[in-house]
């Protein structure tokens, strides 16, 4: 085995560094971040096992930057770096800790020991190539809404739209939702989601490859839909997304930049949804909506 890992490192000068994390997640790249608060520097490292894959990662990043600059991503320097595998294998773990969602749901990486409190569910997930470890503001909001609505008499079924790592589907299944469905347009994300579901002992959820533009879901529709997708896609596919939710059902919209949220909210209220609440964490705004009864 090659004892080197090949990195593309990005010096992030964006006013909101998490935008770069969103871009790298959208590209399904494996990365970590490091912040030098004293000097106000933010560094992202994108990993690859071979020089060829690292070069391809760099090409994809440079291509994506042409689009993401209009959202505020600003990269000051891109450089290629080689690091020893043994140095990397443990160092990145310090960025991931326990994430309490509520008294009944805790997220933890596999290498940490944790004894749950009585009645508490533990969702185990490690960082990887698919978006969703609970650290990101949008994922955190979705999990809070899943937890809040769990056990509500008329809320049983749940759809995880754009499932990434599968974390939302896992959380819903652990909290008693049934049935739970999940899909993502990326086959690698669906594979990772299936692995994470299995690691958490969940056999009833079978994620599938599909696109938000044409996914139909169950004929009886869902009590709760979590759509953690980029804001412009939520607007573009709003009519299809609306069709997944039963009358009086709930819809969580996430993955939306704060400045985009009013347009996304208006797009959904115009087609029969009422905003229940919203929350802004850092530069991301997410909302909980309820569909009209008719």
Primary descriptors:
alpha/beta; Rossmann fold; 7-stranded mixed sheet; 4-stranded antiparallel sheet; 294 residues; 9 helices; Alpha-Beta Plaits
Give the overall shape. globular
Kindly report how far apart the N and C termini lie: 60 Å
Q: Can you count the beta strands?
A: 14
Number of domains: 2
- Helix/strand structural class: alpha/beta
Portion of residues in helices? 25-40%
Describe this structure in words.
It is a single chain. This protein has 294 residues and is an alpha/beta fold. It folds into two domains: 4-93, Alpha-Beta Plaits, CATH 3.30.70; 96-291, 3-Layer(aba) Sandwich (Rossmann fold). Helices cover 30% and strands 32% of the residues. The chain is built from nine helices and 14 strands. The protein has helices spanning 18-26, 51-68, 85-91, 137-149, 167-174, 187-199, 231-236, 238-242, 261-269, and strands at residues 4-12, 31-36, 41-48, 75-84, 99-102, 105-108, 121-124, 158-161, 180-184, 208-209, 222-228, 245-257, 273-281, 284-291. The strands form three sheets. The chain has a seven-stranded mixed sheet with strand order 10-9-8-11-12-14-13, sandwiched between helices. The longest helix has 18 residues, at 51-68.
């Amino acid at each position: 085995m090659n004892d080197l890992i090949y990195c593309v490192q990005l010096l992030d000068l964006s006013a909101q560094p998490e935008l770069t994390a969103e871009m790298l997640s959208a590209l399904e790249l494996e990365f970590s971040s490091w912040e030098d608060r004293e000097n106000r520097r933010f560094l992202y490292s994108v990993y690859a096992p071979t020089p060829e894959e690292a070069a391809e990662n760099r090409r994809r990043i440079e291509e994506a930057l042409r689009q993401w600059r209009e959202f505020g991503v600003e990269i000051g320097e891109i450089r290629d770096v080689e690091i020893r595998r043994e140095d990397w294998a443990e160092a990145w773990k310090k960025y991931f800790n326990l994430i309490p969602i509520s008294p009944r749901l805790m997220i933890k990486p596999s290498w940490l020991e944790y004894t749950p409190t009585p009645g508490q569910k533990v969702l185990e997930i490690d960082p990887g190539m698919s978006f969703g470890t609970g650290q990101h503001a949008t994922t955190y909001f979705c999990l809070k809404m899943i937890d809040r609505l769990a056990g509500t008499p008329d809320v049983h079924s749940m759809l995880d739209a754009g499932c990434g790592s599968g974390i939302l589907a896992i959380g819903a299944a652990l909290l008693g939702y049934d049935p739970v469905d999940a899909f993502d347009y990326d086959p690698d994300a669906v594979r990772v989601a299936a692995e994470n579901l299995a690691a958490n002992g969940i056999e009833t959820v079978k994620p599938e490859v599909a696109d938000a533009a044409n996914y139909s879901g169950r004929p009886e529709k869902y009590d709760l839909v979590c759509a953690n997708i980029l804001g412009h896609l939520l607007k573009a596919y709003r009519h299809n997304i609306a069709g997944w939710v039963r009358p009086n059902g709930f819809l969580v919209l996430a993955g939306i930049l704060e400045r985009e949220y009013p347009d996304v909210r208006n797009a959904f209220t115009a087609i029969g949804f009422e905003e229940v609440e919203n929350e802004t964490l850092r530069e991301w705004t997410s909302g909980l909506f309820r569909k009209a009864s008719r």
